[in-house]
Amino acid sequence: MELTLVFDGQALHSKFHVGWGFSCYLHGMGLLFDTGEDGPKLLHNLEVLSIPLNEIHSLFLSCEHFEHAGGIWGVIQRNPKISLFLPESISEEFKEQVDSLGSKIIQGNGQGSLFPGIYSIEETCTRMPEQSLVIEGDRGLVVLCGCAHCGIDRPVRRVAGEFSSKIDLVVGGFHLFDSTPKKIEQVIESFQALGIHRVAPCHCTGPRARMMFNEAYEDQFIDLVVGSRIQI
User: Domains in the chain: how many in total?
Assistant: First the structure.
């Protein structure tokens, strides 16, 4: 399976549009994870990447924040038959907006299997409840997070405790942009103690945390920008 980053603040080249937010696409599953802040930018990047909207069968939303859900309306207006995997904590107002456009809502219940080898987990905290994906990849488990508002260590530790396979890769926003070097170092040490082999931090991780992860993981650090494609 492959994953392509389709929305973020940095890109491989100027043909892509960038912005605040996160979105990636799982090839072979027809699954889009989050939508970034802007529908037209997201749709443009999908076109540049030759990912047809009619091949996207499912949309998994990590949370309701604009930088993860802002582009959803552009997607479902063009592809109303898409199935939406929404967090258990999503607001009634948001669901009503989706309902009005005719898309099928599949709401989470904290944890469950979405497809063979793909699972959802939801973390609840005061900052913003959020769901993440756990994928059985070729090299081990992949943990895919949108923004990790509750702390990137929480879903990672949970996956390590509840799944029998090792975690190969953690991808997405690590929410460390305003963290101290000491806090970032603690997160890196916890990753290493859990035996996490590869990391691909982006979005809200922050430049300092990305640099520190790069120094710690060296060749196993993936510099993830729009257009990047990862074997999982």
Answer: 1
How many Å apart are CA 165 and CA 188, to the nearest integer? 20
Q: Where are the alpha helices (DSSP H) in the chain?
A: 39-48, 66-69, 72-78, 92-101, 153-162, 181-193, 207-217
User: Tens of pLDDT along 84-142?
Assistant: 998 888 888 888 888 888 788 887 655 678 899 999 998 877 667 789 999 999 999 99
Contact 45, 19 (CB under 8 A): no
pTM exceeds cut of 0.90: yes
**CATH number, position 84:** 3.60.15.10
pLDDT, tens only, 134-190: 999 999 999 999 999 889 999 999 999 999 999 999 999 999 999 999 999 999 999
Q: List the helix and strand counts (H, then E) for the chain.
A: 7, 13
CA distance 59 to 106: 10
Q: Cα separation of 3 and 31, whole Å? A: 10
- For residue 227, the enclosing domain spans 2-231
d(CA 53, CA 36) in angstroms, rounded, equals: 16
* Contact call for residues 226 and 45 (beta carbons, < 8 A): yes
Q: Are residues 59 and 35 in contact, defined by beta-carbon separation less than 8 angstroms?
A: yes
Which tokens sit at 22?
């996160």
Q: What is the C-alpha separation between 150 and 81, in angstroms, rounded?
A: 32
